[in-house]
From TrEMBL, chain A:
Protein source organism: Musca domestica
Any one cellular-component term (Gene Ontology): mitochondrion
Similarity section: Belongs to the complex I LYR family.
Single biological process term from Gene Ontology: negative regulation of oxidative phosphorylation
InterPro entries for this protein: Complex1_LYR_dom, Complex1_LYR_ETFRF1_LYRM5, ETFRF1
UniProt domain Complex 1 LYR protein: residue ranges: 7-60
Superkingdom to which the source organism belongs: Eukaryota
Pfam families the record matches: Complex1_LYR (PF05347)
Name the UniProt record assigns to this protein: Electron transfer flavoprotein regulatory factor 1
TrEMBL record, chain B:
Keywords noted in UniProt: Electron transport, Mitochondrion, Transport
Stated name of the protein: Electron transfer flavoprotein subunit beta
Coarse class of the protein's main subcellular location: mitochondrion
Subunit structure: Heterodimer of an alpha and a beta subunit. Heterodimer composed of ETFA and ETFB. Identified in a complex that contains ETFA, ETFB and ETFRF1. Interacts with ACADM.
Organism (species): Musca domestica
One Gene Ontology CC term in the entry: mitochondrial matrix
Domain of life where this protein originates: Eukaryota
Compartments where located: Mitochondrion matrix
Domain Electron transfer flavoprotein alpha/beta-subunit N-terminal: 24-216
Coiled-coil intervals, chain numbering: none
Biological process terms in GO annotation: amino acid catabolic process; fatty acid beta-oxidation using acyl-CoA dehydrogenase
Length: 84, 253
């Protein structure tokens, strides 16, 4: 149980860290609040299998956000340096 | 096996709108977000990937600039580089630092650290010089592979696919060599928080440009820095005849 708990905390910290650069007006605040709400919503979950599923979902979101950042960077650099 | 030297530059972040300062001596850098040059991120990623494939034994990140440049070295270390070297150049000397100085410093370090490969970003997004890799290869008298799209290890050396106008070119080079990374070489990884913490413990050496025997005296003077001209507003023409006469006026047909 405590092992899962530390994994959840790790994921939460990672998502909060990722949120610092979230695009948009007040993007970081909104994203980080959403993460907080999502974690709070499931704070009473005790079934280990459900917690594992939620962890997987959270990791998927983290991957998507990372992909979003790298795509955003790639696109703006490409736009800046290609003539077409 | 082989040692890779990667150059990283601290530049104004790509997402920041750059403004010229009122004295017209440069752009506003105070209180502006800085990060690693995106092309250098790609270079670091490629070096780390080579290390993961056991094609390299050590990745050394080098940055030249004021003390804040250590931030980008830490980022490179968090991405997987093993150690960092910070060459301190600051103040006016840094403002007027040119690729010629940088390439001499990098060449010196490549020899000193016995590097087998130097990977750099093709250009920095602040000055857009696109000269450092080429000049470093010239100073070292090593082969160069610029605008890399793909780097593969073959028995004696490297097979490189380069991005050229309207296509790709494949070349073979021996090592040691100097490579420069283009945009599509790879997708840089995101430095995670635990890795950033671990990077703080990795060794970072600080040297001065004069310790390396490189003269960083400015060779240029910045006369003035201007904003690009603002695009002029277009006009809507009522019909084809008006369009043709307008074009004739402008000397287009």
């Amino acid at each position: 149980m405590s092992e899962l708990r530390s994994k959840v905390i790790q994921l939460y910290k990672h998502l909060q860290f990722l949120g610092r650069e979230y695009p948009g007006v007040n993007g970081p605040q909104k994203f980080r609040q959403q993460v907080r709400d999502a974690f709070l919503k499931n704070k009473d979950e005790t079934d280990p299998n459900k917690i594992k599923a939620l962890l997987a979902q959270g990791r998927y979101v983290a991957k998507e956000v990372e992909a979003l950042y790298s795509l955003k960077k790639y696109r703006s650099i490409k736009q800046r340096y290609s003539q077409e | 096996m082989s040692r890779i030297l990667v150059g990283v530059k601290r530049v104004v972040d790509y997402a920041v709108k750059v403004r010229v300062n009122p004295e017209k001596t440069g752009v506003v850098t105070q209180g502006v977000k800085h990060s690693m040059n995106p092309f250098d991120e790609i270079a670091v990623e490629e070096a780390v990937k080579m290390k993961e494939k056991k094609l390299a034994s050590e990745v050394i990140a080098v940055s030249i600039g004021p003390s804040q440049s250590q931030e980008v070295i830490r980022t490179a270390l968090a991405m997987g580089a093993d150690r960092g070297i910070h060459v301190e150049v600051s103040g006016k000397e840094y403002d007027l630092l040119q690729p010629i100085h940088v390439s001499k410093i990098l060449a010196k370090l490549a020899l000193e650290e016995k590097a087998d490969l130097v990977i750099l970003g093709k250009q920095a997004i602040d000055d857009d010089c696109n000269q450092t890799a080429q000049m470093t290869a010239a100073v070292l008298d090593w082969p160069q592979g610029t605008f890399c799209n793909k780097i593969e290890k073959t028995d004696a050396g490297l097979t490189i696919t380069r991005e050229i106008d309207g296509g790709l070119e494949t070349i073979k080079t021996k090592v040691p060599a100097v490579l420069s990374a283009d945009l599509r070489l790879n997708t840089p990884r995101y430095a995670t928080l635990p890795n950033i913490m671990k990077a703080k413990k990795k060794p970072l050496k600080k040297v001065g440009a004069s310790d390396l025997g490189v003269d960083t005296n400015p060779r240029i003077d910045i006369i003035s820095v201007e904003d690009p001209p603002v695009r002029q507003a277009g006009a809507i023409v009522p019909d084809v005849d008006a369009l043709v006469s307008k074009l004739k006026e402008g000397g287009h047909c």
